[in-house]
Amino acid sequence: MDHSTKTAEKPDAGRFAIRRARAGDIAAVIALDERVTGIAKPGYWSDVFERYGDRRPEERFFLVAESKAGRETRVVGYIVGEVRAWEFGSAPCGWVFAFSVDPDTRLQGIGERLLDAISKEFQGAGIRTMRTMVPRENSLHMAFFRSEGMMAGPYIQLEKDLD
Amino acid sequence: MKLQIASRLAVYALIELAADPERQLSVAEIGDRYGISAHHLAKVMSTLGRANLVRSVRGAGGGYKFCGNARRTTLLDVISMFENISESEPDTVGDRTEAGAAFRQVLDEIDDIARATLGSITIATMLKLIARRRQAGAQSAEAAEQFAAGIGV
Fold it and tell me: Where residue B14 falls among pLDDT bands split at 50, 70, 90?
């Protein structure tokens, strides 16, 4: 099965490469997520990799950004998404449901490249709309997605406390 | 959410100036583009100057230049200089009733979303949005021309 991504494997100016996640990346993804959110979720990420790392790669995308310094490589960001169809009556669209960049390597265009890479994967799968959800108070992510051209979509998320 | 005119003028002026930080524009030039009085705009520019978002350039052909950080200045930052949109309206008629409190909850939800939206959109993002709209407009005009040519109009 061809798991190559349509994104160039070549590092940007010798510094970063975007590629499909491998099993060996998951510990770094878990550590990055824990560093950013303060919560370790090893079981969650193992499950995500099992479902999105290997299965149905034509419509499921788990990409990582890897920095390269000499022989040293390090995962400095990730993005995970998939094509979903007819949920909530929506025509097929690309959902991004996990995204993070190492705080030490932000403002270097890594997030932009990850989003651009998954956009190209969605486009390659025939998708013309990309969607995500951001906590209202997460102004960093909200501002990032806005700056990349994402706008409020046609759906409103609703919830209820179940006491 | 109803915004004061001053807030809108401030956003327009910052967009005009941030589009090219090297360019200086007079209050009259900005005012002409939006059909607004130079007098009203001058007060707004003065506030933006105190916030270090613009600086005045003296001398012949003087005016204002953008000197802020377009990637860090959000619409909420700008609007908050001219009006308080961080709090709910003070008690209004019926608020202390059950129906009033429930209605207030709904209105607060709308305001929360509006604030989150304004707080996430920077001047740089607005410039990108304008560029995308301009490009989309050019593409549809081109498509219309091709269509018209195709049917021999």
Answer: very high
**Is residue A152 domain-resident?**
no
- Within a domain: A157: no
CB contact under 8 A, B121 and A137: no
Cβ A147–B112 below 8 Å, yes or no? Answer: no
pLDDT number for residue B87: 67
Range of the domain at A55: 16-147
**Is residue B109 domain-resident?**
no
Q: How confident is the model at residue B153 (pLDDT cuts 50, 70, 90)?
A: low
Q: Which CATH number do you get for residue B59? A: 1.10.10.10
Q: What percent of chain B shows pLDDT beyond 70?
A: 93
**How far is CA A85 from each of CA A78, A92, A94, B52, rounded to the nearest angstrom?**
23, 4, 9, 48
How confident is the model at residue B152, as a pLDDT?
66
Residue B45: domain span: 5-86+122-150
A14: confidence class by pLDDT, cuts 50, 70, 90? low
User: Closest Cα to residue A150, out of A76, A81, A52?
Assistant: A81
CB B72 within 8 A of CB B122: yes
Distance linking the first and last C-alpha atoms of chain A:
47
Asked if A11 contacts A68 with a C-beta cutoff of 8 angstroms, the reply is yes
CATH code of the domain covering residue A66: 3.40.630.30
Cβ within 8 Å of A, B 26-85: 71, 74
Nearest chain A alpha carbon to B115: A136
Domain count, chain B: 1
**Nearest Cβ partner of A149 from B74, B119, B132?**
B132
Residue A103 lies in a domain: yes
**% residues pLDDT > 90 (chain A):** 75
pLDDT reported for residue A124: 96
